[in-house]
Amino acid sequence: MDINYELYKVFYYVATTLSFSEASKLLYISQSAVSQSIKTLERKLDQVLFIRSTKKVSLTPEGEILLRHIEPAMNLIQRGESQLVESAKTGGQIRIGASDTICRYFLVPYLERFHKAFPDIHIKVVNQTSIKCVELLESGAVDLIIVNYPNNYLSNVSTIKKIGTFRDVFIANHSFEELKGKKLTYQELSQYPILMLDKKSTTSEFLHKAFQQHQLDLIPEIEITSNDLLIDLAKIGLGIAFIPDFCIHSRQDDLFIVQTKEELPRRELVVAYNDKMPLTKATEEFLSYF
């Protein structure tokens, strides 16, 4: 099927912004030109790609299918352009995907060292959950990701390198003073308010699986997206928070670890990338730090 690349480019910008006017600004063409391009593409494909209304634009199921294929292609083209620009300059760019927690408590020292050694290289960090980071890597939106492992979503990623280990812990403040020095079973622990990351995280999957292995259903009191906020909520006594141990090094004075009889296995931090795609020199250099 002979379809001009520019039509797919216009489709990509409309699909990702869900706005004909915003797409026209990004493409530096008129809104009517954007609309005409989409109509032409729909006619050539014999498919309706967008549902248009006076207030918003949304993708049809067919449009969503097309976007899943177009987005990685657009990212690859942009990546190729970046590498060409990099080869003509002394600098370059590296795109990293990682969660807020991993960035703050693990990645920052590496970024500092790398920036001091290569000040001309542009560093872009995309903060997402470990699950979402895998999607970013597969679509080509980032060059590498640093995520928690086990991670079932990494099955299609070609290269995974272990760079650290950690243990998850339960923490509480003086409101739960009676638990100090005790070792609780999961059954006993489940009687207390548990604070944890939401279900769109590998940490949540990990803890739910641990409880299920003991025929227990875990019903958290609070589920949120930030480990830092979990620590803050534990500090004011709202419940017992479940967090990685590397988050509490400098904040442990008014908190203590609630011990459990069942020992949770250690988890790993891994760096993952697609070695089937050409890596930029900046990415190769950063990977050598681990």
What does this structure look like?
With 290 residues, the protein is of the alpha/beta class. It has three domains: 5-70, Arc Repressor Mutant, subunit A; 89-166 and 269-287, D-Maltodextrin-Binding Protein, domain 2; 168-265, 3-Layer(aba) Sandwich (D-Maltodextrin-Binding Protein, domain 2). The chain has ten helices and 13 strands. The chain has helices at 5-17, 20-27, 31-45, 61-87, 100-117, 130-139, 186-189, 202-212, 227-235, 281-287, and strands at 50-52, 57-59, 92-98, 121-127, 144-149, 159-166, 168-172, 183-184, 194-197, 222-224, 240-244, 256-260, 267-273. A six-stranded mixed β-sheet has the order 8-12-7-11-9-10. Helix 1 packs across helix 4 (61-87) and helix 2 packs across helix 3. The longest helix has 27 residues, at 61-87. It starts with a helix and ends with a helix. The model has no long low-confidence stretch (mean pLDDT 89).
Average pLDDT rating: 89
CATH topology of the largest domain: D-Maltodextrin-Binding Protein, domain 2
Distance between the termini: 45 Å
Radius of gyration, in angstroms, nearest whole number: 23 Å
Order of helices and strands: HHHEEHEHEHEEEEHEHEHEEEH
Low-confidence stretches: none
Range of strand content: 15-25%
| CATH homologous superfamily designation of the largest domain | Periplasmic binding protein-like II
Number of beta-strand segments = 13
Gross morphology is globular
The CATH architecture designation of the largest domain is: 3-Layer(aba) Sandwich
The largest sheet is: 6 strands, mixed
Task: Figure out the total of helices.
Answer: 10
User: For the largest beta sheet, what order do the strands appear in spatially?
Assistant: 8-12-7-11-9-10
SS content category: alpha/beta
Q: Tell me the domain tally.
A: 3
